[in-house]
Design a protein that fits this description.
single chain, 166 residues, alpha+beta, 4 helices, 9 strands, globular
Length: 166
């Protein structure tokens, strides 16, 4: 059975438009699923606030420059690396939200979880989301190369559905 993924606008800021993936047949987009899982969890409230602050900071003031994102193979993750996070007074966040940074103005948010181990491979819940984000990033790179996916400023144009390949 083929699964399809669509890309939906999530939140637009002055400098960055965030999109999210929506896997066919699921009740929520990937980003909505992430936030729904952690919004009511008081043990990670400060981590979630920090992550949301960085999403706003990047979107409103800084733009989606590559150095604000963690390198995760073909995908990326938020919050930024510790040396960048220290600029706002904190340098550690246990949450990771995977994403695909397409330009300084367009980012697609995927899903994520708590980083419970030293590496993503040591964090079972996180590893699933890492693999999905990288699979989508690889496919998007190909679609941009072929011209099937195009960016115009802060907008994604010319794409309807993406077949989720294994």
């Amino acid at each position: 059975m083929k699964n399809f993924v669509t890309i939906h606008r999530f939140k637009a800021f002055e400098k960055v438009t965030y999109y999210t993936f929506w896997v066919e047949g699921r009740a929520q987009s990937e980003a909505d699923s992430f936030f729904a899982r952690f919004e009511a969890n008081q043990s990670v409230a400060l981590d979630l606030d920090l992550l949301v602050s960085w999403i706003s900071e990047i979107g409103q003031r800084r733009g989606a420059k590559a150095h604000y994102f963690r390198f995760e193979n073909d995908a990326n993750a938020l919050p930024p690396p510790a040396r960048i996070m220290a600029e706002l007074g904190d340098d550690y966040c246990r949450l990771r939200l995977y994403c695909v940074r397409l330009s300084d103005h367009v980012v697609i948010l995927a899903n994520g979880s708590l980083k419970t181990g030293r590496t993503v491979q040591d964090s079972p819940d996180l590893l699933t989301h890492f693999r999905f984000a990288n699979k989508m990033a690889q496919q998007l790179i190909e679609l941009i190369g072929s011209g099937e996916l195009q960016l115009m400023g802060q907008e994604i144009v010319a794409i309807d559905q993406i077949e989720l390949l294994d």
